[in-house]
Design brief:
Blueprint (H helix, E strand, L loop, with lengths): L1 H18 L31 E3 L3 E8 L3 E10 L7 E6 L4 E4 L10 E9 L5 E11 L5 E11 L4
Parallel strand pairs: 2-8
Antiparallel strand pairs: 1-3, 3-6, 4-7, 5-6, 7-8
């Protein structure tokens, strides 16, 4: 019994020692990170990309439950570097965003297409889509709204 316990302890120690051995080659270069925030409170976001949406909210109006609605939010990169959208997350599984995966160059334009499935919904609906990008602030929120009513029988 003592031998099994000693072997178990040695095995655990081996796992701990090897797990903590990190290679220094895995570190990110500081050149890749551009964070305009500083401890002094001064910010310089002049070199960052910037969204300019025609509108960040769309109202579908009165719709019948069961419809699939789509809207394209058009935007322009009015910043000073390439705009990269990393994520697009909807507040509900009934809302699906599609976004450009390639960088949007300075002065370039793009579209975020949002599809809202009204199946099983009733009454006023307000859904949000949060974009994560290399902008300041990094999260941008888009909104879609609709007044969903039951189909006439």
């Amino acid at each position: 019994m003592k031998i099994k316990t000693k072997l178990l302890l040695i095995s655990i120690m081996l796992v701990i020692v090897t797990a903590c051995n990190q290679s220094s080659n895995e570190k990110l270069s500081a050149d890749l990170i551009n964070n305009p925030n500083s401890a002094t409170g001064k910010q310089d976001a002049s070199g960052l990309p910037k969204f300019q949406f025609e509108s960040d909210i769309h109202d579908f109006g009165k719709v019948i439950e069961g419809e699939k609605l789509s809207y394209s939010f058009k935007f322009k990169n009015v910043g000073n570097s390439d705009l990269i959208i990393a994520t697009a997350n909807a507040s509900c599984g009934c809302t699906v965003p599609e976004y450009p995966k390639d960088p949007i160059r300075k002065g370039g334009e793009g579209v975020i297409t949002v599809t809202f499935n009204t199946a099983g919904k009733n009454g006023f609906q307000h859904k949000t889509i949060t974009l994560g990008a290399n902008t300041q602030p990094s999260d941008i929120v888009l909104h879609v709204k609709a007044m969903v009513s039951s189909p006439e029988k």
